[in-house]
Specification:
Elements (H helix, E strand, L loop, with lengths): L1 E8 L1 H7 L8 H12 L6 E12 L5 E10 L2 H10 L3 E3 L19 E3 L3 H13 L4 E3 L5 H14 L31 H11 L16 H17 L3 E3 L2 E9 L2 E9 L4 E6 L3 E3 L6 H9 L4 E3 L2 E10 H9 L16 E2 L7 E7 L3 E4 L9 E4 L8 E10 L11 H16 L6 E5 H4 L18 E3 L8 H17 L9 E6 L6 E3 L12 E3 L10 H14 L6
Parallel strand pairs: 5-6, 5-11, 6-7, 11-23, 19-20
Antiparallel strand pairs: 1-3, 1-4, 2-3, 8-9, 9-10, 12-22, 13-18, 13-21, 14-15, 15-18, 16-17, 19-21
């Protein structure tokens, strides 16, 4: 198998071999690569697209990496000699899970988000049958709970956009991009495809599933786990742990539907609790689990018309049928060193209220797979340092986040409405009035002044950075763009200290994923869940 890298296709060429998202027209694909390699099409046996990205720095082009199998070794050798971007490749998967050879204690996993799900899948492959606890509801009920919040302002503090089957990413864009490097990345992507995700995520440079598809995928994963002996309890919160000589003996859990507690003997507990389980982290800290404050970021969501983003990124190709909805990943340096950067950009999506505590407002972004909504949105975040809030208490970051979320709620008239302000108003150039870009939040919105919500240094960085972002992308110069507050849950402000194998200061308790402070996003959380589940039982990744 020969791998060809950095093959450039014009939008017209890309459209000829794939009129949709997935490159499936093998005949057209063979014709293109045959012309590129100056070979007859029949010399190519199979073509596997490995990676596809878009380069829009000067002109717009698709950059492709492909694995090609040829009819004979002589042809392969000629290609290797003629093309500098050609190399021999092995497409076998490096992910191999060893089954345990003797009986081990039944592990308990807390959290049914990416870290917990992939830890459970890995444990099943090892021959284990873990118990899984999730404080939120299963997908169907969770959707109903979210709809009650949107339409009737009825917040279920245990089942919402933060908590429930699939984790917080299930009600976001379900992005699968990551900045980490790991042999497990391909395995995670293949697992999602196995349970119903589009095959295009295997090669897209910025893969996503969308909130609509990932909900179905997560349900299929749940059914697979149940069929392999995993016991899953939804609406169940870890309430207490019992230890002896700093060694775990058992846990106390609460059935939130029945409001009853029960005791589970347990000597292997994997915490995959997510970044918003403040009460659980507080309980663990009080029980002696060592943790420290860590940097995080807060800010707002900015909304532009998606076609403005397309024009800014793709120029004359902004409406070309081959071009996907444009996204961006921007950052600028600011005088105080905190910086301003985009995060979790959602093309063709909407802003959602992601509150999990009463009398507090949190916003996030969400997109369906088609990304066909009118607006694009992205978080604009400013770095927060432990010294900004830390008074020697590792949990002080939670209080810092909560105070901002509560001010946002108060600014909206003590209602669950997104507090919004236009860019022009923030910069002191226009009145705070909605014009060409309507806020997309279905909960509704309330005009406000972000000065009453955010710390002064966050506002200073926003005001300094927005004009600089306009130099990078024209749409950021639109003074009618809408800012929605507040984005406070981009990551946890706490890191649970753990050893190389993932064990915390209490023997038998392990931490993984965002809630432990070791990942950010679906992919890195899933990989951390795999890694720690292996290391719990002496395997390396």
């Amino acid at each position: 198998m020969i791998r060809l890298q950095n093959i450039s296709l014009s939008p017209d060429e890309r459209y000829r071999i794939a009129k949709g998202d997935l490159i499936t027209d093998l005949k057209a694909c063979k014709l293109f690569f045959a012309q590129y390699l100056r070979l007859p099409p029949e010399a190519l046996l199979t073509i596997r697209i490995v990676k596809e990205s878009i380069d829009a720095r000067k002109s717009v082009s698709f950059i492709i990496t492909a694995d090609i199998e040829f009819v004979d070794a002589d042809t392969e050798n000629r290609i290797l000699k003629r093309f500098k971007n050609a190399s021999v490749t092995d497409i076998s998967s490096p992910h191999i899970t060893k089954r345990l050879t003797h009986t081990r204690p039944t592990p308990v996993i807390v959290g049914f988000g990416p870290a917990g799900i992939f830890a459970a899948l890995e444990m099943v492959d090892m021959g284990l049958e873990p118990i899984m606890l999730e404080r939120g509801a299963a997908i169907q009920q969770r959707v109903e709970d979210v709809q009650s919040f949107i339409h009737h302002q009825l917040l279920n503090s245990n089942s919402n956009i933060q908590y429930g089957e699939g984790g917080a990413g299930t009600f976001s864009d379900a992005k699968l991009s990551t900045g980490i490097k790991s042999d497990a990345i391909r395995h995670v992507l293949e697992t999602f495809v196995r349970f119903g995700a589009p095959e295009s995520i295997l090669y897209k440079a910025m893969p996503h599933i969308g909130t609509d598809i990932i909900r179905r995928v997560v349900v299929q994963i749940r059914k697979h786990l149940l069929n392999h002996g995993v016991k899953i309890s939804f609406r169940t919160t870890l309430e207490d742990i019992e230890t002896e000589n700093k060694t775990l003996q058992g846990i106390v859990v609460r059935d939130n539907a029945l409001n009853q507690t029960r005791y589970i003997p347990c000597t292997k507990l994997l915490l995959c609790i997510g970044h918003s389980a403040r009460d659980t982290v507080e309980m663990l800290y009080n029980k002696g689990v060592e943790m420290v404050s860590k940097p995080f970021a807060i800010g707002v969501r900015i909304e532009h018309l998606q076609q403005e983003v397309n024009r800014s990124r793709y120029h004359e190709y902004w409406n070309h049928p081959a071009m996907p909805r444009a996204s961006y990943n921007l950052n600028v340096k600011t005088p105080d060193g905190r910086g301003l950067y985009s995060f979790c950009m959602c093309p063709g999506g909407e802003v959602v209220l992601a509150s999990s505590e009463h009398s507090g407002i949190v916003v996030n972004g969400m997109s369906y797979y088609a990304r066909d909504a009118q607006n694009a949105n992205s978080a604009l975040l400013v770095g927060i340092r432990p010294e900004d809030f830390n008074c020697g208490d590792p949990l002080a970051g939670f209080s810092f986040q909560r105070s901002i979320e509560q001010r946002a709620y108060e600014s909206a008239g003590n209602q669950y409405l997104a507090p919004v302000q236009t860019v022009g108003s923030l910069l002191g150039k226009t009145e705070n009035r909605i014009s060409s870009i309507s806020p997309s939040c279905k909960n509704g919105y309330s005009m406000c002044k972000l000065e009453t919500i955010l710390p002064a240094y966050v506002l200073q960085n926003l005001k300094y950075g927005l004009p600089l972002l306009a130099k990078q992308m024209r749409c950021f110069g639109n003074l009618e763009a809408v800012l929605s507050g507040v984005e406070t849950r981009s990551s946890s402000p706490v890191r649970i200290l753990r050893s190389e194998c993932g064990e915390t200061s209490i023997k038998g308790i392990y931490g993984a994923g965002e809630g432990a402070g070791f990942s950010g996003g679906i992919m890195s959380s899933a990989i951390d869940g795999i890694k720690i589940s292996r290391r719990m039982y002496g395997e390396a990744l």
